[in-house]
Design brief:
It contains 7 helices and no strands.
Length: 173
């Protein structure tokens, strides 16, 4: 629910907007982590949660990444690998696995992808906030933003391999 709020803060292209986006995104990520932690600890993990929690994470980060691009903090085309990965996972892999009676839960690589995206999002907010105070940092900051997102894109696209393997295993079974 906080994705549009974070996106709106980002597209203000202001110092306060970047700070507000970073803090709001951090809050959203902490509450998402706590929700999953307590669900596992209390044994309240459900197939519905296994489907919708990763979908909610994907929607959150896609909205935020597109907002970062629209605000000019990263190239907008950099959202494409993230969008492609999430479409493949949620439109093809999860429904295909479901046809074989398998619910794809998050795996280590998917969680690593999420953590890398969270770190990069906070890093970009900090980088942009610094650039507002010290404009001479802007070119280096944008280059750093690009590199951080490129690394996160590699993690994102690479993290889908275990899901392909799980679907192939379900198909063979």
């Amino acid at each position: 629910m906080l994705a549009p709020v974070v996106g709106a803060f980002l597209v203000t292209r202001s110092e306060w907007g970047v700070w507000a986006a970073g803090w709001t995104a951090g809050f959203a990520m902490i509450t998402d982590f706590l929700d999953g932690y307590y669900a596992r600890r209390e044994g309240n993990v459900s197939d519905l949660g296994k489907i919708f929690d990763p979908l909610a994470d994907a929607v959150f980060f896609l909205v935020v990444i597109v907002a970062l691009g629209l605000a000019g903090y990263i190239p907008l085309w950099l959202a494409v690998p993230f969008l492609a990965r999430e479409l493949v996972q949620h439109v093809y892999l999860r429904p295909t696995a479901a046809r074989f009676g398998v619910v794809l839960a998050a795996v280590f690589w998917g969680k690593l992808k999420l953590v890398s995206q969270a770190v990069v999002l906070i890093g970009v907010c900090i980088s942009e906030a610094i650039s507002f105070r010290f404009p001479q940092f802007l070119p280096a900051g944008r280059w750093i933003n690009f590199l951080m997102f490129a690394v996160a894109a590699v993690f994102s696209v690479g993290s889908i391999a275990p899901y392909f393997r799980a679907v192939a295993k379900a198909r063979r079974a």
